């Protein structure tokens, strides 16, 4: 049996409201149990239960339906702790119209009792209701005269509430982000450690791990940044957001936001190679031969590429127009170097350039040649 409690707002007579869960994972800490502990030490009457419900709804903005499940489990947990003779019984908790709490033992009507904790003889059930039949269920009132919590029961009840709230918010947290996989999310830096950066994403605290940061980028507290949500998963009872700024997908997500023609499939990204903080190369194409895909991504007066560069903390970005000619593609990938000739044999490429062009073809940390090899699927050697 599930109990339902609705709450009215005074200014909206006749209307009922369900309160939304906050956009964060709230954890009930010991100091947050002050009101609940006060209630747990009181007699379990209707007013105390209403106070507990209102505390959970208002303080943590939980759905009243779910709160009633929490309260119901809380009372059952207390009752079975203090009355061990009913631990195996199917206990049902109800709140009567006058606010009084009633506790029942649910029994299934049978012709021969095998389990006295959950079954009752037909002849005994008929004493309560004459028209009852076999396999129907009857509720026997087992409400104690005095309902006061023992210390052990109070602790068990508090733990029940804490676990229920954590479970509810964990599932709501998962539901909130599961549709945002593969998207760019706005975040705010709230703490910077030696290695990790702590972010606030929609009132949710998330850790940006060292390997997912832009290397050597200084993160400032309260600055706004973007991150790419690669995956949301469930691990060991917790929800994990896999966010990054160092992957090629992060760059693609930025371009998707900045370039409407990309979202409309006028231009396409064929492949991205990236060495975070150093250099990114992007092969692009167009569905219309009259449109220059590189120019679309760079933007009018370089406005789009400048925005990208600012979000990548100055990381170099090259756009290369796609071609079916592998020699031409490799020559474009090795730019800004001017290539004199290219020889392809099996999966190896010999690219000949003037001596003065070699540093441009290889570039700092050999980024240019590494990305050219990665995007062309050839092992490139510059001579």
Characterization of the model:
- There is one protein chain.
- With 383 residues, the chain is an alpha+beta fold.
- 33% of the residues lie in helices and 28% in strands.
- It has helices at 34-40, 46-60, 64-82, 122-128, 151-177, 248-258, 260-263, 293-298, 303-311, 326-333, 358-362, 367-376, and strands at 7-8, 16-17, 90-95, 101-110, 119-121, 137-141, 184-192, 197-201, 204-208, 224-235, 238-244, 267-275, 279-286, 316-321, 339-345, 348-353, 379-382.
- The strands form 5 sheets. It has a 5-stranded antiparallel beta sheet. Strands 3, 4, 5 and 6 form a 4-stranded mixed beta sheet that branches. A 3-stranded mixed beta sheet has the order 12-13-14, sandwiched between helices.
- Helix 10 (326-333) runs antiparallel to helix 12.
- How is the biggest beta sheet arranged? 5 strands, antiparallel
Poorly predicted spans: 1-36, 38-42
Our count of helices gives 12
Strand percentage, roughly?
Answer: 25-35%
Strands of the widest sheet, in order across it, are 9-8-7-10-11
Radius of gyration: 33 Å
Distance between the termini: 80 Å
Shape category: elongated
- Compressed to H and E, one letter per element, the order equals EEHHHEEEHEHEEEEEHHEEHHEHEEHHE
How many β-strand runs?
A: 17
Number of domains: 4
- pLDDT average, as an integer? 83
User: How helix-rich are the residues, as a percent range?
Assistant: 25-40%
Structural class: alpha+beta
């Amino acid at each position: 049996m599930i109990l339902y409690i609705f709450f009215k707002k005074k200014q909206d007579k006749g209307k009922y409201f369900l309160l939304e869960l906050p956009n964060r994972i709230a954890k009930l800490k010991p100091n947050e149990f002050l009101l609940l502990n006060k209630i747990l030490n009181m007699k379990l009457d209707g007013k105390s239960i209403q106070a507990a419900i209102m505390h959970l709804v208002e303080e943590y903005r939980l759905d009243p339906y779910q709160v009633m499940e929490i309260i119901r489990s809380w009372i059952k947990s207390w009752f079975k702790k203090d009355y061990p003779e009913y631990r195996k019984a199917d206990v049902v908790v109800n709140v009567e119209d006058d606010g009084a709490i009633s506790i029942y033992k649910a029994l299934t009507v049978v012709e021969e009792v095998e389990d006295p904790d959950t079954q009752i003889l037909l002849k005994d059930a008929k004493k309560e209701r004459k028209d009852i039949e076999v396999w129907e269920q009857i509720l026997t009132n087992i409400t104690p005269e005095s309902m006061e919590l023992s210390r052990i029961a109070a602790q068990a009840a508090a733990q029940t509430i804490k676990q229920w709230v954590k479970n509810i918010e964990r599932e709501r947290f998962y539901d909130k982000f599961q549709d945002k996989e593969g998207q760019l999310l706005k975040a705010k830096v709230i703490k910077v450690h030696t290695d990790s950066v702590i972010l606030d994403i929609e009132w949710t605290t998330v850790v940006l791990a060292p390997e997912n940061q832009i290397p050597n980028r200084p993160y400032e507290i309260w600055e706004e940044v973007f991150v790419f949500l690669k995956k949301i998963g469930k691990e060991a009872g917790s929800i994990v957001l896999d966010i990054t700024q160092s992957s090629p997908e992060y760059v693609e997500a930025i371009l998707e936001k900045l370039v409407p023609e990309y979202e409309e499939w006028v231009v396409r990204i064929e492949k991205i190679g990236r060495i975070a903080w150093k250099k990114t190369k992007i092969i692009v194409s167009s569905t219309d031969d009259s449109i220059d895909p590189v120019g679309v991504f760079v933007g009018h007066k370089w406005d789009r590429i400048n925005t990208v560069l600012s979000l990548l903390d100055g990381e170099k970005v090259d756009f290369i127009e796609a071609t079916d000619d592998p020699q031409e593609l490799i020559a474009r990938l090795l730019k800004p170097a001017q290539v004199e000739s290219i020889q392809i044999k099996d999966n190896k490429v010999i690219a000949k350039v003037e001596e003065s062009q070699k540093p441009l073809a290889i570039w700092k940390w050999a980024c240019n040649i590494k990305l050219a090899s990665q995007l062309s699927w050839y092992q490139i050697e510059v001579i």
